[in-house]
Amino acid sequence: MRHLLLRLRPADSLQWVFVGFLALLTLGGGLAALVQQPAWLLPALAVPALVLVLARWQWLYYLLFLTLPFSHELVLGSLHIDVPSEPLLLSLLVCVPLALLLGPGGLGQLAPREWRHPLLLLPALMLAWAAFDTLFSVNVLHSVKYLLAKCWYLVPCLLGTLLLVRRPADFWRVAACYTGAGVVALAWVMPRHATQGFSFAKVGWAVQPFFINHVIYATVLALLLPLAGGLAQQASTPGRRRWWLAAGGLLLFGLITSYTRASWLALPVAGLYYWVLRRRLTRWLLLGLAVAGVGSAVYFTGADRFMNYAPDFEKTVWHGGNFEAHLASTYKLQDVSGMERVYRWVAAARMVADKPLTGTGPSTFYPEYKRYTLKSFRTYVSANPEHSTTHNYFLLQLAEQGVPGFLLFAALVATTLLTAERLYHASAARPEVRRIVLAVVLSLVIILFHLFLNELLEVDKIGTFFFVGLAALIRCDSWTADLTDLTDFADTPPAVADDAHSAVLPAPGA
């Protein structure tokens, strides 16, 4: 009997999984039959699903970007969760580290230069500072939630992308998933908006339920435009090229009819940066922005000059039914959304003056900022029932995480743009890489421009691609550093199988 039991004993981990599955299936089946409740079979069915997900986590990654434009907030009591994006990000938060530790080559799946890359180290330092800053937070619970949310952005979107994207075709597959899904989302929004004559007043209704507001909707469309252009440029057939050009046209039409001023401006800003990139002027651009930022702060705070720009409460209104009046009120400083930003920027500046080193703690701007507001800048929407924050991500970093947090984020922005400029010129003889660098950096510039007027980096539809873009630049840096000719695998199908784990490009004939 003992010899028989020894022979039946599972010999490896897969057999143990199979035995566990049979045990759960037997137990669950018995309970389901006993109480007439099929739900008892779910634990057993979860075992093969879990094994499949761990073995092929890449499917979850692609599913994330295929469903990202359709993700919407679900309220469960006091819990607010974006479905399905956050459950998928949480699943990838488990799968990606396991794939990194247990996959072929272990941590060596990423080259040493990638582990040391500034675009990987700076986000890690930002997370470390946020964790330290939580010790001084005015609301530790909110700050801990912020740290968890940052983890499920950084791990799946930064490390996961580095593990997944091994060849240029891999990146374009991710871009195609997100861009294609974005075009499908337009098939929902545009007919709804068309029934209202594409009116300015109804755009907020038309984008529901997949987009919280027209700003997020327009930002997503804007950041997808460079990807659509890159997909068209690298398309292998005329039919695919025409499809992606048509997709870009639809995205542009959706952007125009979103009536979002910041997103409209983001496109010429991206075009201007393309000129800066080609002329190798990024350093001068960053220096100019730094001087302008410091100079503006000195000017407005000197002799309290900012008080001269306090709005007239009665005239600062929302022109919801008249877009021309909406535009006119912007330059007259009578637009309620613009002046509400000023109201919060003044509060943020006073918060920085009060706690310059640590700030108030991650994710604590609301409601802490209310103690620092000035009634002179109050507007009729200052009650802020949606609990939004500064509408300027740079100021938000200063107010919540102090000068160190702001400097780390500013360093990340500067390093990203400088790296992209270097890679763009270093890949002149490698069009497969150059196309990725250009599409990614233009999308990132569009996101960064929006951060001056909104805090969109914490939005799932935007923050995810921000970190994917950083990972893509890290991978492009590895490709340009390698002496291998890319032309041998330019048309090779994307490598998703387990044997495609080398971060270094294969040599010709290898």
Could you say how many structural domains there are in total?
2
Distance between the termini: 53 Å
Strand content: under 5%
How would you characterize the largest beta sheet? Answer: 2 strands, antiparallel
N-to-C order of helices and strands: HHHHEEHHHHHHHHHHHHHHHH
User: Taking Cα atoms only, what radius of gyration do you get, to the nearest Å?
Assistant: 25 Å
User: SS-based structural class?
Assistant: mainly alpha
Total beta-strand segments? 2
Order of strands across the main sheet:
1-2
C-alpha geometry: globular
Number of helices: 20
- Would you identify the regions where 5 or more consecutive residues have pLDDT less than 50? 483-510
Percentage of helical residues?
Answer: 55-70%
Summed over residues and divided by their number, the pLDDT gives a mean of 85
Organism: Hymenobacter polaris
Membrane topology: Multi-pass membrane protein
Domain O-antigen ligase-related: 250-410
Subcellular location: Membrane
Describe the structure using short key phrases.
single chain, 510 residues, mainly alpha, 2 domains, two-stranded antiparallel sheet, 2 strands, 66% helix, 2% strand, disordered C terminus
